Each structure stands twice: as C-alpha cells, then as structure tokens.
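Quality-control log, excerpt.
Job 1 of 2 completed; input and output follow.
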Amino acid sequence: MNGERAIADRFALDDLLTAYAVAIDTDQVTELTRLATQDAVFDYRSSGGPRGSVAQAQQWLEGALMKVSVRAHLIVNRRFDIQEDTARVEAHFFNPMSVKVPGQEDEIWNPGGGYYSVGFRRTEQGWRISELVMLQTWRVAVGVHVAGGSSGHRGP
C-alpha cells in the first residue's frame, strides 16, 4: 500500500473512532447510523448490552446512557492493521463516569475500562465501522458527593 494512502487511511480511521466516542459522550447515538455500514454489528455484551445491529445498539445505548450524568469516553493505545479495503483497530478504553442511583441524592463515581476491537470497511462514502466489540474488563463504584458550584473555580 502506498505510504500517502496508508497515512490518510490511518487518519480517517482515527477520526472515525473519535467520532464514535464523541457520539456516545454527547448523547448523539443516532450518529452511529452515519458512522457504520448498514450491516454493522455492535457487541456490548460485556457491559450488559446486546450483540446486534446498529438500531439495536442505539436503542440499548439510549436507555443505558440516561443513567450516566457525567462521562468521558477515552479510546487510547490504538493499534491499526490496515489492508486494502478493510481494517482492524485494537485499542484500550478508559471511561470515567458518574452514575445516578435511584432514591439517592449522591451519585456513584463509576470509572471503568477495557478494550475495543473494531472492524472497518471502505465504502463509497469512505471508511465505516463494520463491527465493534467492547470488552469491559474492569469497573469500580465509589460513593461521591460533589460540593460547590459547577464552574470549577477554586476561589480563595
């Protein structure tokens, strides 16, 4: 594969992973339709979700993310294997988040992490996700109470 094309492909795949993470973090799971192939499979079984179509993933994510008031989805240590019209990325994820607990005022600080294995296919519209497998390997829960305002200002 030509060096310039390999670099362009790597940037395109990296942008697609970032767009996926941003869609999850900003409650825009409908974006998965644009980011994935029509026959894509998303596998969230390791975190209690389904293995299924884009529509099934979207439905589960919408319900699951309603309980998560604060989250950041960080996908790091990305390893790319790019072929002509297919690619695979193996990456770690770290997901700091705060979860609402029914009947309690405080939230639970609930960070977790694991791995993604993501398959991609080149289409007429560019690279798209053809398979995404999330393997959550750890998660902890700690009761927290956040004091003060939301501005983050540390006054005198």
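Job 2 of 2 completed; input and output follow.
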Amino acid sequence: MTTTVAVSLPDHLVAEAKRAVEAGRAGSESPYVAAATERQARTETLAELLRVERV
C-alpha cells in the first residue's frame, strides 16, 4: 500500500534525487525519497535498541 504525501525539500536534496534518477539509481524521485526515509527509520530504530541495551 502507498499513500501520496506532499513534502518540501531543500533544492540540493531535490537535485540529488534527480541525479539519482538520471544515473539510473532510482526509477523516480519518489522511490529515492522512500528509500532514504526507510534508511533513516532503520538507523533510528538501531540507535534506540543500542540505548536500551546499555541500560
């Protein structure tokens, strides 16, 4: 399932997403942003797990 959302990004991030598409690293800007969001979520989850383990 997907949901459409509108986000505002700094120009340099939009340019990076467009470069990724042009280089064939992403099919469009949407999957590029989704992958970046997924990576951030995993990083935050891992950081939270590490904090819990230290307690």
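Post-run check on job 2. DSSP finds two helices and no strands in the chain.
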